[in-house]
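Archive entry. Fields below.
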Amino acid sequence: MVAINVSESQAKMIPEWMKEKNFRFPVLVGATREFLSSKYDHRGSPTNLLVDSEGRVLFRHLGYGTGGEKIIEAEIRSMLGLDPSEVLESAATEKAPPDAEP
Amino acid sequence: MIKKLFLPALLWAVSLLPAFAQADQPKDEKAELTRKQNADKLEQLMGITFLKDEQQKRLQLEKYLEENPNGPHLVTAYMALFWPVLKTDPARALEVANRFLERVPPDDKRMKITAYRFKYEALKALKKEADVAALSRNVLETETEPDLLAQMAYYDKENALHLYEKAVTEKRKSGGDRYSNPTLSDLLSGYARLLVREEGGLAKSIDLMREAIQVDEGTIRELEKADGVNKSQIKPLQVRVSENSLSLAQMYVKSADGKKALEAIDKAEAAGSIALERRSAFLGVRAETYSVMGDREKAFETYLRSFAVRMDPATWRKIQTISRETGRRDQDVMAAVVRLSRTGGQPFSPFELKDLQGETKTFNDFKQKVTLVNFFFPT
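PREDICTED_STRUCTURE:
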């Protein structure tokens, strides 16, 4: 996973935020609005793209709600050739509907 | 804070610059002298707005306005004076607004709008609701400029519909002028969007919105026939037809007319290329249309497609409702979202960005793996 910061003015908050949430993934900074919209058609945050090993974008999501991570997890599993329904079944038993959009 | 307040004034000043540039080769010495005086005054004014001491700044701005009651740069000076005063002393801000309004040259439409805005802002800050309504009645009685009438609707909910109605009437009177802003279509659609919220306003708002769409379609046809028209002129009109058709579809959904709603949403999707961030909204209205038509299966499928584009909690609740009613299993529903989310597999654009340690990273550093790229900001 790689996270690309879209708010240059908030970039200085990142190290503290990573520490607080105990995140370890690589974070990239310095992407301007123009760069994001022209290269990635970025239209809002968060946007999640799932890219396969050949560099092709197979899934794209705008927005987020609790439970959305299960969908993304299932998509990753399908890309890795694993059975996506395993995570979906556990999600169904947890009954975690998307309920909030940051 | 200071920077924020200063920005509108600066933008206004910058907007005056082309006027100076045009006068670069003056034939008339008098004109050259005025140009120079104006430039000097602007410099003086900028000097004042940069003052750190708010009290000093206010006094000097008031002095400038006293010495230059007819300008130049009235708007710049009044903006710099008004906004900070509004925060600290709204009663005084009202006095400033009143004085500004008195001094506006009758033919300066833009300045007049600014002056009226100040007055509304001050009255609202003072919570003088009765005076706000009285001001609107006065505007309705004395003003005929469509732009002004429509803009003031924003400040006075009680009279907003009257203001829009008069804006539309005045715009119609001005004849077939389709190209000056706000256009007749802007006013019709703005009026319709306000009216639809009122009880009993639905039928009329549908008529207004239909007319707005027809006006723009007429303009598009006209432009397409004309020679040497830049295609970029047509594009925003198509987007407007698309967005207005979407609103019209929502209005038909509200009046439970599924057939008309479907026609409108078809037009909305056909009229312009829909921006990515709007796609889920269009699909959402399409799904509501199918619901009104009683086609629950199509509605369900369309809500899923909308959710695949944008994970919107409200859409998810609708999906769940239909899902329960039809006895679907949650994991099947989520599997359907996964299936519908799959894109065409476009190549990911390579990048070169710095990480938190300042090291340059390119997309090659992440290639050969399945990668989740998350565009985020810290919260």
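CURATOR_NOTE: Strands of chain B lie at 352-355, 360-362, 371-376.
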